[in-house]
């Protein structure tokens, strides 16, 4: 492997444990961090402050949420709001 890839693997960090979501199913954890990121971003931008502290939430939800969910969200199909039949 190249040195760049080895460095990325060495520095990789996944989402830490969150006591609010102790179960194996991390769907709500993913969704809550997604909401927290956007709320934080909106709040800090409204106050003309740097939204850099919100990046933690972005990293966590990107770590927890499957890529297909993020793609669907970009297309306007928010998976959490889908009607289950």
UniProtKB/TrEMBL annotation:
Compartments it resides in: Mitochondrion
Main localization category: mitochondrion
This protein's GO CC annotations: mitochondrion; respiratory chain complex IV
Pfam families: COX6B
Key words of the record: Disulfide bond, Mitochondrion
Gene3D superfamilies: Cytochrome c oxidase, subunit VIb
Keyword match ATP-binding: no
Family annotation (InterPro entries): COX6B-like, CX6/COA6-like_sf, Cyt_c_oxidase_su6B
Name listed for the protein in its UniProt record: Cytochrome c oxidase subunit 6B1
Originating species: Nothobranchius furzeri (Turquoise killifish)
Gene: COX6B1
């Amino acid at each position: 492997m190249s040195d760049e890839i080895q460095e990325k693997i060495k520095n990789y960090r996944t989402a830490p444990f969150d006591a609010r979501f102790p179960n194996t199913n991390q769907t709500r954890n993913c969704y809550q961090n997604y909401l927290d990121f956007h709320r934080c971003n909106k709040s800090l931008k409204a106050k003309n402050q740097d939204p850099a502290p919100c990046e933690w939430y972005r990293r966590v939800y990107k770590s927890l949420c499957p890529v297909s969910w993020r793609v669907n969200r970009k297309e306007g199909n928010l998976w959490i709001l889908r009607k289950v039949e």
